[in-house]
Write a structure and sequence with these properties.
12 strands, about 20% strand, four-stranded antiparallel β-sheet, Alpha-Beta Plaits, about 45% helix
């Protein structure tokens, strides 16, 4: 299907754009301009008469289950309307070329798919790893030219890297495999590339959510075969927005904090005779608490209690949403936030008690929203972002007050997007 600028501007993609970004005329006009501009840039970068396809992959936000996944727990996550978009055309030379206005160019020969040590921690490594894994699994690969643009901010806990990985898998799936791969397999291929070629151990939550879309709960009891369930809930009908607040702070010095958090939970599990906390219950921990305290720090025990509570809270959140009780869901979000603050203790680093931006943002959010919304630490914690569920009538005031403290542009208003990674040509037809 050939999509030219005039078709975009005349409304040829409106059906798909509404599914991705909602019905707001102002937002649709902005997105149409964004897509038309991207097509023009693609034609400049890769001139010639070519059929093109357009792809979009969302970022994601964690909604429930803070630091539960690494102990085989459950999580609740959601795709958002910030995304990475690509205009793509297959080529005949077997080379993948991906250009972007923000990032270094990526060039991968699909005949050369061994791990390249010097490429680690680069987008090129991710693309090479995806192609390698597709080949190992018996899928077709080939060359294509692409120009991408992204409004998924780095460092805001919205998984810009996972979105890129899943985008590349989606492109190869549609161009060369007739869209035959399901969403979970696409996520697993992306995870493989990040683990083996990029050089970063990661779970499967981010990639799965980007691939599936909507609200997704994932059970990691079996790490190799996680179970996911798309939650049947119309968030757009609630007249609420998700707001992510970036408070600043440097993640570079927080590796020890993240490692300690996971290790302390697993140390508690080992003291109980297992490997991960999912093997046990809070009741078993309490029955053996005196003995466990002789082997594990008190902080490790508190973090284990957080795990048990937040793991169950995910189940309760999903049940609340699927029975249409949004207020109960919001109450559980607030509970999770307090548990992260007091038990998981990942709102600030104990090595830098003077930097407590997340705590300040949470305190302001509680003062503004009270019983009308919800607020919690977002993602890994210690620095970075918080998440708030804000009534639409309060969003402007909420963002103004938070940005007065943390700076202009520190707040991101998000819509939960019902679709995951897609070829827009297919859903716009």
């Amino acid at each position: 299907m050939i999509v030219q600028n005039q078709i975009v501007e005349a409304g040829g993609l409106d059906k798909g754009l509404k599914l991705l970004y909602g019905d707001d005329p102002v937002e649709l006009k902005k997105q149409k301009g964004r897509y038309a501009a991207l097509i023009r840039i693609f034609n400049q970068e890769f001139p010639g008469e070519r059929a093109i396809e357009i792809f979009s992959t969302p970022g994601r936000t964690e909604v429930g289950g803070n630091h539960t996944d690494h102990n085989a727990g459950r999580v609740l996550a959601a795709a958002v309307d910030l995304d990475i978009v690509a205009v793509v055309s297959p080529n005949q030379d077997g080379v993948i070329r991906i250009r972007s206005g923000k990032f270094p160019a990526v060039t991968v020969n699909t005949d050369e798919l061994d791990v390249v040590e010097s490429e680690k921690f680069s987008p090129t490594a991710l693309v090479r790893g995806i192609c390698a894994r597709l080949g190992q699994l018996g899928y077709q690969i080939g060359g294509f030219d692409a120009f991408t643009t992204s409004n998924v901010p780095n460092g805001a806990g919205l998984s810009s890297s996972a979105a890129f990985e899943v985008l590349v898998v989606t492109i190869l799936n549609h161009l060369f495999n007739d869209g035959s791969m399901d969403d979970v397999l696409s996520a697993q291929i992306a995870q493989y590339a990040e683990n083996v070629y990029f050089g970063k151990p990661c779970g499967l939550m981010d990639q799965t959510t980007c691939a599936v879309g909507g609200l997704v709960t994932i059970d990691f009891k079996d790490f190799k075969n996680p179970i996911f369930h798309k939650v049947d809930f119309d968030f757009a009908a609630q007249d609420f927005s998700v707001v992510i607040v970036a408070v600043g702070g440097d993640h570079a010095d927080l590796n020890d904090d993240y490692i300690a958090l996971e290790n302390e939970m697993k140390s508690t599990a080992r003291a109980l005779g297992g490997q991960v906390l999912r093997e046990f219950s809070k009741e078993i921990l309490f029955q053996n608490l005196a003995a466990v305290r002789t082997q594990v720090s008190d902080r490790g025990i508190l973090r284990a209690i957080h795990f048990f509570n937040d793991d169950q809270r995910v189940v309760d959140q999903v049940e609340s949403l699927e029975r249409g009780d949004f207020q109960a869901f919001l109450d559980l979000v607030v509970e999770s936030g307090y548990s992260s603050w007091t038990l998981c203790q990942n709102v600030f680093s104990c090595t830098n008690v003077h930097d407590q931006g997340l705590a300040i943002a949470l305190a302001i959010s509680e003062d503004i929203l009270k019983s009308k919304g919800a607020w919690r630490v977002h993602g890994g914690g210690f620095a970075g972002t918080i998440q708030a569920f804000v009534p639409n009538a309060m969003v402007a005031d909420y963002m103004r007050e938070l940005e007065a403290v943390f700076g202009s542009g520190s707040c991101y208003k998000l819509m939960i997007r019902p679709l995951g990674s897609v070829c827009l040509n297919k859903i716009a037809a």
